[in-house]
Amino acid sequence: MQPTELREYMDGMTRIKAQERLELMDAIQYPHIGSKDRTKSHRAVSKLANPQDFESRILKTTELELI
């Protein structure tokens, strides 16, 4: 595996984890913190989950075999 491919996979894993965390944050709504702190935390995770420079592409099954 090339270093660039590894970096792409790591970025993808970070994005997926951040999306799951956003769903959890929306479900729980963190009642023990203030709305200002909640907004700040939500915004930070949202930037991780939805990066501006993210390029999605369709993978072929032959590429999936390499994982």
Question: Can you offer a commentary on this structure?
Answer:
This protein has 67 residues and is mainly alpha-helical. The chain has one domain (3-64). It is 67% helix and 0% strand. The protein contains three helices and no strands. Helix 1 (3-28) runs antiparallel to helix 2 (35-49). The radius of gyration is 16 Å and the shape is elongated.
Main attributes of the structure:
mainly alpha, 67 residues
SSE pattern, N- to C-terminal: HHH
Poorly predicted sequence stretches spanning 5 or more consecutive residues: none
Mean pLDDT level = 77
Gyration radius over CA: 16 Å
| Distance, first to last CA | 9 Å
- Write down how many β-strands occur, each being a DSSP E stretch of 2 or more residues: 0
Helix residue percentage: 55-70%
Number of domains: 1
- The coarse silhouette is elongated
* Strand proportion: under 5%
| Tally of individual helices | 3
Structural class determined from secondary elements:
mainly alpha
> What's the story with the biggest beta sheet?
none
Tell me the layout of helices and strands:
Blueprint: H1 3-28, H2 35-49, H3 61-64
Nutshell version of this structure?
This protein is mainly α. It has helices at residues 3-28, 35-49, 61-64.
